[in-house]
């Protein structure tokens, strides 16, 4: 298979993993917590690189994900125990951990295969070079692809197995608590999954662009449907299309592939924003124009989901 | 580090970072109070494409051009966020993350595209990602100093309306203030602070420069002017520390170290600040819990003695447990503390009230029963509904309040349950 296929496949895997988890995040109003975790895992990743050289195994990655979980705990601690407002709790936590990560990276700059730019936007273009080759010389494709596929499988498994708990604690925490479902358990499970995904995606797309997939894809899907399961499916499809679109955009303008995939996701969002069949701003204006005299009530006036 | 002060370059960089950080910290107080820390983060990420476009148009890295581009892009990002929140059902956090990542992705894309095109003068544009304090020139410092001064003057001139808009927007609106104007001004100042501040710490860490100093200051005071002074001080110290570290160890980046110092100051403040800090708050809570426990123990001695009107009989822990549900461990602790204070005296297997302890137990039961009386007589609660309230408030009533209660109720001798309200003879 050619390099471009591997890059698109890798991008799609990252996009789908992040997008699926992002659906829960944005409905829990935790989009920025996802953003924070994606930055906060940096020190963990750097240490994982230091420990295991340029070929980071699964175990160091899980260790790195623990740092993301630590960030989630610290945010909660600042908010509940120190009574700091949410936005400041998030802001202080992730900037501190990210700064630590950058400092360690600089200190060991000669020893690890990570530089400051890679931290921010990854090196998906190098994915096809990192092949798994057995002793007989057969190539099994790029290593990141297989790691990401494993993680995606884990996440899909997590969502299927924990669907009831995740769904209830997302949409009706009070009802979930009444049923004896632990909100804290599902909160931290979700945070753990986000941490793991971020860590694994980091190599390919970097810190900030993980956020694009965590937030932009689910936000787009949310404008297209009112059904949560459908939202998960649409998010996955949008992930693949943004990976394909982004790849060719990057090819044309010779820019960062990850950045281009973000732009593609942004363009998809803009389309949904204006032309979504049920919620698009322009579509609604046109619909409203059909019935001029009776003050137009658009779908937006009756939001579903857990808007409060 | 004597040669630090002899190096004119180091002094320039130091001046630049300190001014930038302090300017951002002062504006950041309002960002913090308006709970828009993450909006500041989004703006910081969003200025990147503006910087790239400014570079492409002007063909130079002149900080004035780049700042102009940054301010315009920052403002556009604010408008887009606002538009998404108003026009769709997406929440503020989603809109913030969305704008942040798409603008930043666009910026990264343009940046890499410019780099790959081999434009010779572009080197250093990527410094905006993590700040380029070390390469600051004298002229840059004038520009940042100017920006910081503008921000400070605006803050001083509009201090009162800014404060009102930040604390109570609805009230400001209701008295006919042009809130939109002050919000516009505050947002513009935030964008300006971000556009200049990223020179020191870069786009990713800019949010910290805005809000971490303010958050740290908040733990030490309830007064906004002091909070602003403190935050500026914290930012200045951190900027100085960060610059010094990167000067002493050249491989070390300035921006992340500034944030490192800031975070340490903030976390320390959160932990140890008097009153609002976690340690102080926990200590206060424990002290209250201990006081309530000890007072409940003395009260139990009174209840055990009231049938025979003999309050000084020694009681064992078992006796006390029979009429009140303490945990054994906390009971032991409370008994030990009270005998240390001198309210209880060890007597064989048990403890007995001392004279002071007797007075104290009378006082608590008196407060309890006075309050029950008050609830019954003045709030017309039924006698069987007054105990719970009194259990809580008996530990809080001051002697002044006690006097008022007695006068209000006409010095009663019996409570609603016809039990005696005890006074020492």
Name the pair of protein chains with the most residues at their interface, and give those residue counts: A-B, 68 and 60 residues
Strand segment count of chain A: 2
CATH architecture of chain A: Orthogonal Bundle
CATH class call of chain A: Mainly Alpha
Notable traits:
heterodimer, A: about 300 residues, mainly alpha, ABC transporter involved in vitamin B12 uptake, BtuC, two-stranded antiparallel sheet, disordered C terminus, B: about 425 residues, Arc Repressor Mutant, subunit A, 2 domains, two-stranded antiparallel ribbon, 18 helices, about 75% helix, elongated
Tell me about this structure.
Chain A is an all-alpha fold and 308 residues long. Chain A has one domain (3-131, 141-276): ABC transporter involved in vitamin B12 uptake, BtuC. Chain A is built from 13 helices and two strands, in the order ααααααββααααααα. Chain A has helices at 3-27, 31-40, 42-52, 58-80, 86-107, 116-121, 143-161, 163-171, 173-178, 183-222, 228-253, 257-275, 281-290, and strands at residues 131-133, 139-142. In chain A, strands 1-2 form a two-stranded antiparallel ribbon. In chain A, a hairpin with a 5-residue loop joins strand 1 and strand 2. Mean pLDDT of chain A is 85; it is low at 291-308. Chain B is an all-alpha fold and 425 residues long. Chain B has two domains: 2-210, Orthogonal Bundle (ABC transporter involved in vitamin B12 uptake, BtuC), CATH 1.10.3470.10; 286-425, Winged helix-like DNA-binding domain superfamily/Winged helix DNA-binding domain (Arc Repressor Mutant, subunit A, Orthogonal Bundle), CATH 1.10.10. Chain B has 18 helices and two strands. Chain B has helices spanning 2-6, 8-33, 37-58, 63-87, 92-116, 138-157, 159-167, 169-174, 179-201, 206-218, 224-248, 254-272, 278-306, 317-323, 328-341, 355-378, 387-393, 399-409; strands at 344-347, 350-353. Chain B has a two-stranded antiparallel ribbon. In chain B, helix 4 (63-87) packs antiparallel against helix 5. Chain B is elongated and about 100 Å long. Chains A and B meet through helix 2, helix 5, helix 6, helix 10 and helix 11 of A and helix 3, helix 5, helix 10 and helix 12 of B.
């Amino acid at each position: 298979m050619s390099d471009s296929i591997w890059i698109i496949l890798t991008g799609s895997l990252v996009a789908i993993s992040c997008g699926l988890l992002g659906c829960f995040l944005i409905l829990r109003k935790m989009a920025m917590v996802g953003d924070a975790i994606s930055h906060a895992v940096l020190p963990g990743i750097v240490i994982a690189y230091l420990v295991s050289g340029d070929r980071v195994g699964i175990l160091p990655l899980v260790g790195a994900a623990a740092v993301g979980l630590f960030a989630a705990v610290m945010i909660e601690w600042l908010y509940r125990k120190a009574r700091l407002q949410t936005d400041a709790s998030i802001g202080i936590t992730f900037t501190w951990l990210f700064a630590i990560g950058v400092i360690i990276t600089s200190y060991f700059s000669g020893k690890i295969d990570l530089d400051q730019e890679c931290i921010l936007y990854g090196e998906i273009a190098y994915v096809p070079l990192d092949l798994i080759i057995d002793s007989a010389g057969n190539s099994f494709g790029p290593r990141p692809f297989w790691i990401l596929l494993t993680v995606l499988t884990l996440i899909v498994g997590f969502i299927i197995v924990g669907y009831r708990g995740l769904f209830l604690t997302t949409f009706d925490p009070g009802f979930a608590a009444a049923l004896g479902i632990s909100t804290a358990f599902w909160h931290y499970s979700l945070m753990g999954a986000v941490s793991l995904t971020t860590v694994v995606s980091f190599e390919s797309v970097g810190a900030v662009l993980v956020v694009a997939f965590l937030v932009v894809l689910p936000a787009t899907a949310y404008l297209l449907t009112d059904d949560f399961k459908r939202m998960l499916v649409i998010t996955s499809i949008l992930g693949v299309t943004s990976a394909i679109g982004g790849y060719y955009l990057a090819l044309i303008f010779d820019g960062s592939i990850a950045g281009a995939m973000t732009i593609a996701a942004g363009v998809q969002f803009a389309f949904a924003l204006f032309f979504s069949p049920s919620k698009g701003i322009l579509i609604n204006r046109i619909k409203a124009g059909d019935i001029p005299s009776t003050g137009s009530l658009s779908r937006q006036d009756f939001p579903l989901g857990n808007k409060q | 580090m004597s040669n630090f002060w002899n190096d004119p370059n180091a002094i320039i960089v130091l001046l630049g970072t300190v001014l930038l950080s302090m300017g951002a910290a002062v504006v950041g107080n309002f960002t913090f109070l308006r709970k828009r820390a993450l909006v500041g983060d989004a703006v910081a990420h969003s200025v990147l494409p503006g910087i790239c476009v400014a570079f492409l148009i002007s063909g130079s890295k002149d900080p004035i051009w780049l700042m102009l581009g940054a301010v315009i892009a920052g403002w556009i990002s604010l408008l887009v966020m606002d538009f998404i929140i108003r026009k769709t059902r997406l929440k503020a956090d989603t809109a913030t993350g969305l704008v942040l990542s798409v603008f930043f992705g666009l910026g990264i894309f343009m940046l890499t595209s410019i780099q790959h095109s081999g434009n010779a003068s572009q080197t250093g544009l990527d410094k905006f990602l993590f700040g380029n304090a070390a390469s600051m020139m004298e002229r840059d410092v004038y520009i940042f100093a100017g920006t910081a001064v503008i921000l400070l003057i605006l803050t001083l001139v509009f201090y009162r309306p800014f404060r009102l808009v930040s604390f109570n927007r609805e009230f400001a609106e209701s008295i006919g203030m042009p809130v939109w104007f002050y919000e516009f001004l505050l947002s513009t100042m935030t964008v300006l602070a971000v556009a200049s501040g990223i020179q020191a710490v870069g786009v990713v860490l800019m949010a910290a420069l805005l809000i971490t100093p303010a958050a740290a200051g908040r733990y030490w005071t309830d007064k906004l002017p002091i909070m602003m002074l403190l935050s500026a001080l914290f930012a200045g110290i951190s900027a100085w520390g960060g610059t010094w570290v990167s000067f002493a160890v050249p491989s070390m980046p300035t921006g992340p170290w500034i944030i490192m110092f800031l975070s340490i100051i903030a976390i320390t403040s959160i932990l140890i600040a008097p009153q609002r800090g976690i340690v102080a708050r926990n200590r206060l809570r424990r002290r209250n819990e201990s006081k309530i426990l000890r007072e409940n123990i003395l009260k139990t001695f009174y209840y055990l003695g009231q049938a025979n009107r003999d309050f000084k009989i020694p009681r064992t822990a078992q006796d006390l447990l029979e009429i009140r549900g303490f945990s054994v461990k906390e009971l032991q602790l409370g008994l030990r503390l009270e005998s240390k204070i001198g309210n209880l005296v060890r007597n064989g297997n048990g403890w007995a009230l001392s004279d002071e302890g007797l007075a104290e137990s009378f006082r608590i039961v008196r407060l309890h029963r006075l309050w029950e009386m008050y609830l019954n007589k003045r709030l017309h609660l039924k006698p069987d509904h007054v105990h719970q309230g009194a259990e809580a408030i008996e530990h809080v009533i001051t002697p002044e309040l006690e006097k008022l209660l007695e006068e209000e109720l006409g010095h009663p001798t019996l409570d609603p349950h016809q039990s005696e309200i005890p006074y020492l003879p």
